[in-house]
Specification:
It is a single-pass type II membrane protein. Helices cover 35% and strands 17% of the residues. It is an alpha/beta fold.
Length: 249
């Protein structure tokens, strides 16, 4: 029996399908600490991290997103660059086949588009300190892809890389990305299969033949109790182990 470890699976995906998957992470506020050493150890074994020159922190996600796209473009020549939160269930085959439909589009921004209220109260989780830029109290943001999962085409990732020093960062990274693309000739694709709910929602859709690209709980901005429930969601909503290998690219 041959057992393939995570690192070998990643290399097989890269070689045979051109799909590169990495955990994207910066460094802790105390370089060389326990967390950094643990990440270094796993990366040495599996080669599954993209390390950024960035200090991790929830309020630094816009900076991290900008740096991620700039770094990824400099390393990999890809048709699409994506960001997926690690507490989201993802069907890689469905994601790949969905993106393949848009390969002929030079400037495309794909995700579950939304336009939520601009929160002006400091006690709100998604408080926007620059709320006055968006007009009167009660106004909504421009439409942008929700932050759990989105994809942009190569030209847009290159644009972010080239203009990185002058791209403004808002408090929320999904808003920041949307603002960087707002004034460009970009096609926004509202792909609702990228934001299915967890069972029973994604399960019913799978049973009907409409397997979701991604599933999560809106109330938690990811799968609630994801460590405990991820396998449960996968068992109900997963596409099958070999799905990605059957996608014709």
């Amino acid at each position: 029996m041959c057992v393939i470890n995570a690192g070998e699976k990643l290399r097989k995906l890269e070689k045979e399908k051109g799909i590169v998957i990495r955990f994207v992470i910066g460094h802790s506020a105390t370089p060389g600490g326990v967390l950094d050493r643990a990440v270094d150890s796993e990366d040495a074994e599996h080669k599954d991290f993209l390390r950024l020159k960035h200090v991790e922190g929830y309020h630094e996600l816009s900076t991290k997103t900008r740096l991620y796209f700039s770094t990824a473009v400099s390393i990999w020549d890809a048709e699409f660059y994506l960001k997926v939160d690690d507490d989201v269930h993802l069907n890689l085959g469905m994601l790949t086949s969905t993106l393949a439909k848009y390969r002929s589009k030079p400037r495309i921004y794909i995700g579950c588009m939304k336009s939520g209220p601009v929160l002006s109260q400091k006690e709100d989780k998604y408080y926007e300190p620059e709320y006055r830029k968006f007009g009167e109290d009660g106004n909504k943001y421009f439409r942008h892809a929700t932050g759990q999962l989105y994809a942009i085409s190569k030209d847009l990732a290159a644009y972010i890389s080239i203009n990185s020093p002058i791209l403004h960062r808002y408090a929320n990274e999904d808003v920041s990305l949307g603002s960087w693309l707002l004034g460009l000739e970009v096609e926004h694709v509202d792909e609702r299969s990228m934001c299915c709910g967890t069972p029973p929602d994604c399960e019913w859709k799978a049973q009907a033949g409409n397997v979701c690209v991604a599933s999560f709980d809106w109330s938690c901005s990811g799968i609630c109790n994801s460590v405990r429930r991820m396998k449960e969601v996968h068992d109900s909503c997963g596409e099958g182990e070999g799905a990605v290998w059957n996608v014709d690219l």
